[in-house]
Amino acid sequence: MRPLLALGLLFASAPAVQARCLLCARDGAAGGAARQAGIPLRVEVETRLDMGRVAVGAMGGEVEVDPVSGARRVRGDVVDLGGFALTGVVTVRGEPGAEVRVILPASVDLESGHGRTARVTGLVTDLSAAPRLGADGRLQFRFGGRLRIAALDDGDYRGRIPVTVEYQ
């Protein structure tokens, strides 16, 4: 029997908000950009991405949380130890009907209390290709990702996932 070590993960999302440059309008007219910039964007993390608890064997593997279904999938030499896996949930508020762009990093490094690191890749949202704030000036979306775990690595890994939202 292969030894398995517990790996608990919790992600804290740190929102970063950017307003659109009034001098950078694509069509040369700043009127639309000025209207959108009139109400600043506010980004609030409602729920942090949490991969739950898993055990990792000698071959390592990965844990993935799907943003649409919220399902946790394990691959490789990883065993699901239960607990709740949660998709990240973010609420954006701003100019009603405005189109926005949401940017997540390609990867994020997490750290344990013992100085070890793990990397999250494949961060994705459940947003459409051209997301817009609703008539109430609000947009809520979910995000998930994939954590690659080295062989026999254990610990409680934490990190910040920057979420950037801009007016289009």
Question: What would your notes on this structure say?
Answer:
The chain is mainly beta. A hairpin with a 5-residue loop joins strand 7 and strand 8. Strands 1, 2, 3, 4, 5, 6, 7, 8, 9 and 10 form a 10-stranded mixed beta sheet that branches. The protein has one domain. The longest helix is centred in the N-terminal third of the chain and has 7 residues. The chain starts with a strand and ends with a strand. The N terminus is likely disordered. Keywords: Signal.
Top keywords for this entry?
168 residues; mainly beta; ten-stranded mixed beta sheet; 4% helix; 55% strand; elongated; disordered N terminus; DUF4402
Beta-sheet strand percentage?
over 45%
Largest sheet at a glance? Answer: 10 strands, mixed
Q: Distance N terminus to C terminus?
A: 55 Å
Please provide the ordered H/E string of secondary-structure elements. Answer: EHEEEEEEEEE
Keywords: Signal
InterPro entries: DUF4402
Protein name: Resolvase
